[in-house]
Amino acid sequence: MRFAAACLLLTLPASAADREFRSVVDAISNEFHSHPLHIPMFGLVNAVAFVVRPAGAKHIDLAVFEDLDTRGSDGRALAATIRGAVGGSWKPFVQTRSDREVVSVYMRPEGNDWRLLVVSIERHEATVVQLQLNPDGLQRWLTFPRESVMTRLGTSKSRDRDLDP
């Protein structure tokens, strides 16, 4: 019973910590008169991420919009709206704009972890992802990606090297 209650609590969204994520999702919803897709059982992803911590990820929020009509939308104005929704505690990390897409990546420290917020808007779809990352786990994954995956799968490093061409 306690395990079920713990899993249920892990699947509930954090309130204040995800305010900016929800603000960005609301800004996109208002701009394009659309709502994000419902992804069944996505809350279980956070329960698994909390335990397994793939690539240092502890928490994941995801919103996917499809069939957007971006004609007549000003990319610069939308980027400014998103920047306003993100707030001052997030620092721009990467921003790109083209005639086909706008991508913004923001970061902020949170205790010993980092929060990463990625917003990608294309002509007919948009994606918003927020991750809570452990910097040590992320660094391990970036430095040794195959070894990190093989360790998680229970495969030894020596066997993995034998498979290399």
Order of helices and strands: HHHEHEEEEHHH
Radius of gyration, in angstroms, nearest whole number:
18 Å
Number of domains: 2
The rough form would be described as globular
Distance between the termini: 49 Å
Helix content: 40-55%
Q: Note the main sheet.
A: 5 strands, antiparallel
What percentage of the residues does DSSP assign to strands (E)?
Answer: 25-35%
**Helix and strand composition category:** alpha+beta
* Order of strands across the main sheet: 1-5-4-3-2
How many helix segments? 7
Q: Mean pLDDT score, rounded?
A: 75
Low-confidence stretches: 1-17, 156-165
Give the oligomer, counting copies of the same chain as homo and different chains as hetero.
Answer: single chain
Find the count of extended strands (DSSP E, 2+ residues).
5
Question: What topology emerges from the helices and strands here?
Answer:
Layout: H1 2-11, H2 19-32, H3 43-52, E1 57-66, H4 75-86, E2 91-97, E3 101-110, E4 113-122, E5 125-133, H5 135-143, H6 145-153, H7 157-163
Antiparallel strand pairs: 1-5, 2-3, 3-4, 4-5
Helix pairs in contact: 2-4, 5-6
What does this structure look like?
This protein has 165 residues and is α+β, with helices and mostly antiparallel strands. The chain has two domains: 132 residues, no CATH class; 32 residues, no CATH class. It is built from seven helices and five strands, in the order H-H-H-E-H-E-E-E-E-H-H-H. Strands 1-5-4-3-2 form a five-stranded antiparallel β-sheet, sandwiched between helices. Helix 2 runs antiparallel to helix 4 and helix 5 packs across helix 6.
